[in-house]
Write a structure and sequence with these properties.
Blueprint: H1 10-17, E1 25-29, H2 36-48, H3 62-68, E2 75-78, H4 89-99, E3 109-113, H5 121-132, E4 138-144, H6 152-155, E5 159-162, H7 168-178, H8 184-193, H9 198-206, H10 209-224, H11 230-236, H12 242-262, H13 274-281, H14 286-304, H15 311-326
C-alpha cells in the first residue's frame, strides 16, 4: 500500500505521530480529495511496524514488508463492495468477529473503515461496542467526507482529526506535477470544479469531467433554446455522476441570485455558464429559484446518504424545474 505523505500533510502527521499515547480510534475527516486515505495508510503502517522510528515505520521489518505487499494479517479494511453502496450490518459483524482474534503478528490490529458515513444505522450501532471496548492493541481509523452524517455516539468515541485542503498555490503546484500535459487553464478549471481539492481534481481529469462539463453546459443551452427536451437530456446524461450534476445546478441557482443582488459579472462563476446565468437572472423569480435550490440540496443529501433514487427520473425532474425557472415566458 502507498504510504507516502502528500506535501500538505506533514503538519497532520507530526501531530498524530507526536502524540504521547495513541488513541484506540481516530476519525479522519475532511473534504473529498484531501488525502485522508494516504494519511490513514501511513498511520496504519507505523502502528503495525515492529521497529517504528519516531516519525515513520522502519520499512524493513516483517510487518512493514507484509504491509507493503498488501497481505498484513492484522490490517483490516472495510469498504462498500461497490462505490456508492452502503456498508451493511453483516459487513461490520464479520469485521468484529475477525478483530476479536489474537493478532497474528503479535502486535497491534488496525482497522481502516472508509467511508464511515456509508454505514447504515444498524451497522454503525453494531460497531459501537467495539469502539467502546476495542481490546488491547486495536486501533480504528475511520475516514469520512461527511462527518455530520455519522451518529454522535460514533464521533464521541473517536479522536477527531481534521484533514484540510492545501492552500491554493500548493494545490496548483501539486496538480501541475501530476498533469504536466494539461494547460494552466485546464488545471485551474479542474481545481475550481473540485472545490480546491487537488486529489479530486486529479480524479476529475481521469474521469473526463471537463468534457462532461462542456456537454452539460451545451445541453443546458439547447434546453433553453428548445432544441432538446428534459427527457432527452436526462438520457444523454445517464452515465454522469448525479451528485456532480446536482452540485453544478445548485451552484448556478446561487450565482443567479447573487448576481441579481450585485449586478457584478464577477459573481457569475465560471465563464462557460456566465452568458446563460446573466440572461436568466434578468427574469427568474427569487422564491422559485430558492425553492429549486432547496430541492436540489435535499436530493444531493439523499444521494450522499446512498438513498435509492432513480437517476433518470431525478434528472428529468431537475431539468423540468430548471426550464420552468429560466424560460422567458415565466417573466412576471
Amino acid at each position: 500500500m502507498h504510504t507516502e505523505l502528500l506535501p500538505w500533510q506533514q503538519p497532520l502527521w507530526d501531530s498524530l505521530s507526536g502524540r504521547p499515547q495513541q488513541a484506540h480510534a481516530y476519525l479522519l475527516h475532511g473534504p473529498a480529495g484531501s488525502g485522508k486515505r494516504q494519511l490513514a495508510n501511513r498511520l496504519a503502517q507505523w502502528l503495525l511496524c515492529r521497529q517504528p522510528q519516531a516519525v515513520a515505520a522502519c520499512g524493513q521489518c516483517s510487518a512493514c514488508l507484509l504491509y507493503r505487499a498488501g497481505s498484513h494479517p492484522d490490517l483490516f479494511v472495510l469498504e462498500p463492495e461497490e462505490a456508492g453502496k452502503s456498508i451493511l450490518i453483516g459487513d461490520v459483524r464479520a469485521l468484529v468477529a475477525s478483530i476479536q482474534q489474537t493478532a497474528q503478528q503479535g502486535g497491534r490490529k488496525v482497522i481502516i473503515l472508509e467511508p464511515a458515513e456509508a454505514m447504515v444505522i444498524n451497522a454503525a450501532n453494531a460497531l459501537l461496542k467495539s469502539l467502546e471496548e476495542p481490546g488491547a492493541g486495536t486501533v480504528f481509523l475511520l475516514l469520512s467526507d461527511q462527518p455530520s452524517f455519522l451518529l454522535p455516539t460514533i464521533k464521541s468515541r473517536c479522536v477527531l482529526q481534521a484533514c484540510p485542503l492545501p492552500a491554493a498555490p500548493q494545490a496548483a503546484s501539486w496538480l501541475g506535477e501530476q498533469l504536466p500535459d494539461y494547460s494552466d487553464d485546464q488545471r485551474s478549471l479542474l481545481l475550481q470544479l473540485a472545490g480546491g481539492s487537488p486529489l479530486l481534481a486529479l480524479e476529475h481529469a481521469r474521469n473526463e469531467v471537463l468534457q462532461q462539463r462542456a456537454e452539460v453546459v451545451e445541453g443546458v443551452k439547447q434546453l433553453i433554446k428548445r432544441q432538446t427536451a428534459p427527457v432527452e437530456l436526462a438520457t444523454r446524461w445517464a452515465k454522469m455522476p448525479p451528485v456532480l450534476l446536482l452540485e453544478w445546478f445548485a451552484s448556478w441557482c446561487q450565482l443567479m441570485l447573487r448576481y441579481r443582488l450585485t449586478q457584478n459579472e464577477a459573481d457569475l462563476g465560471l465563464a462557460d455558464m456566465q452568458p446563460v446565468l446573466k440572461y436568466a437572472a434578468g427574469f427568474i423569480e427569487t422564491n422559485a429559484c430558492l425553492q429549486l435550490h432547496a430541492w436540489i440540496l435535499e436530493r444531493r443529501i439523499k444521494l450522499l446518504r446512498r438513498a435509492p433514487l432513480r437517476q433518470d427520473l431525478l434528472l428529468e425532474s431537475l431539468l423540468v424545474q430548471w426550464l420552468q425557472l429560466v424560460r422567458p415566458t415565466g417573466r412576471r
